[in-house]
Structures are given as C-alpha cells and as structure tokens.
Amino acid sequence: MSSTTPTPPQASLTERRKAETRMEIARAAAGLFVRHGLRATRAEDIAQAAGIAPRTFYRYFATKEEAVAPLYAAGAQRWVEAVRAAPADDSVPQALEHGVRHTLTPGVGVSASSWEWVRTLLRLAEANPSLRRVWAEVCQASERTLGEVLAARRLTAGPARTPTTTDLDNVATPSDLRFAAAVASAAVRAAVESWATAGDVPADGPEGPAELALRNLGVLRDFPWESR
C-alpha cells in the first residue's frame, strides 16, 4: 500500500531560488573546508568560491560554520521524507527502517562518493564546537519534523475515517510521538556519527551508517512505539 501521509506544500519560485543559492554557498563552503580545513577558510573565501559578494554571503549566513547547514539539513530531510513515504500500513519501526534503507544506503539516498563528504563534515563537527552546534541544531529541527510525520502517519492509519487536509495540516505531535521521534533520531544520528569517526570504514559495509542505524533500531525493538 502506498503512503497517504501528506507532503509539505511546494515552495514558491522565490523560495526555491533562495534555497538553491543557499545550497550553492553550502557546497562551496564544504569544498573549502574539505580541502583547506575550517580554520583556514574565511567567509570571504566561501563567497568568492560561490561567485557572490561577501555582503550576499552574510544575507544568507551569519558565520562561515552556518554555511554548511543546508548540506547537513538535506541529509536529515531525506531521512524524514523517506519515513513519510513509507507504506501507510507500515508500523512505526517499519517506517523508520524504510527511511534508513532509502537514505543511508550508498547509491540509494546518497552516492558513495558523497558519503566521503558526509564523513569529513561530521569529523569537522566533532572537532569544532561552532560547527558541532550547527549540526546539533539541524538534528533538533529534523527530530521535530519526524515527530510531525509520525503524528500524521498515526492519523492517516486511524480506522474511523479518512482525515481531511485540514486535519493533516493541524495535526499536533503527542508527547509519546515526540519521545519516539527523539529516540529514533538519536539512534540514527549515533550510527552516522559513529561511522564517520571510526576511521576509513566503507559506507556500504556491515559497519556502514545504514547497517549501524538498523542495528540501533533493532536494539529498540521492544520500545513502545505505538503507545497512545
């Protein structure tokens, strides 16, 4: 059965262009961080690499560390959207595992080469408090969105009636699903961070991010995901 969980409304053309510019800056920043290191890279260097003026850079980001937030957020958003897209009759654990398999498996959610960028950016975050704060803020925002997705999935799975668009737009996240989202997010985040800081472990091996995340979720098999 296909998913009936609603997708977010499409952004306007202006919003999409701003998002594209933010991502272009983020890629330029990541490239410089990988090649030269965080400390040696200035905001002006990022602006030059992105083909924009420094003042334009500061319209989008307050610091050079914040410039990679869109890349962190893109990965986190893919995971949440994959959970949203899981079959409607999947249980919470099944939907979470669906999300992992469709985003953390190299070649499915992200290419194998892109995982090397992920590894480097997470290692930089591990070593730099400012960058670690950016990563933590992205994870917190993703956790909130995951809670909303789980709440919407619960509503669409209800047997009483088919929810209206208004129902889905106004759905609140119950406390148990907030907790479930926090637990699931921590399990996946710990897996990705453990892989990134463990040396040159292949992303597609038994110690890769997908397998580690599935293992972490497996440990939580008895967690009361469906409590109401």
UniProtKB/TrEMBL annotation:
PROSITE patterns attached to this UniProt entry: HTH_TETR_2
UniProt DNA-binding region: 42-61
Domain HTH tetR-type intervals: 19-79
Record has Amino-acid biosynthesis as a keyword: no
A GO term for molecular function: transcription cis-regulatory region binding
Superkingdom field: Bacteria
InterPro entries the record matches: Homeodomain-like_sf, HTH-type_TetR-like_transc_reg, HTH_TetR
Keywords: DNA-binding, Transcription, Transcription regulation
PANTHER family: HTH-TYPE TRANSCRIPTIONAL REGULATOR RUTR, MYCOFACTOCIN BIOSYNTHESIS TRANSCRIPTIONAL REGULATOR MFTR-RELATED
Protein name: TetR family transcriptional regulator
Source organism of this protein record: Streptomyces swartbergensis
